[in-house]
Amino acid sequence: MSDTLPPCPSCASAYTYQVDALLICPECGNEWSADAPADAEEAVVRDSVGNILQDGDTVTVIKDLKVRGSSSVVKVGTKVRGIRLVAGDHDIDCKIPGIGQMGLKSQFVKKVTD
Question: Which domains does the chain possess?
Answer without folding.
Answer: 1-36 (2.20.25.10), 58-111 (2.30.30.40)
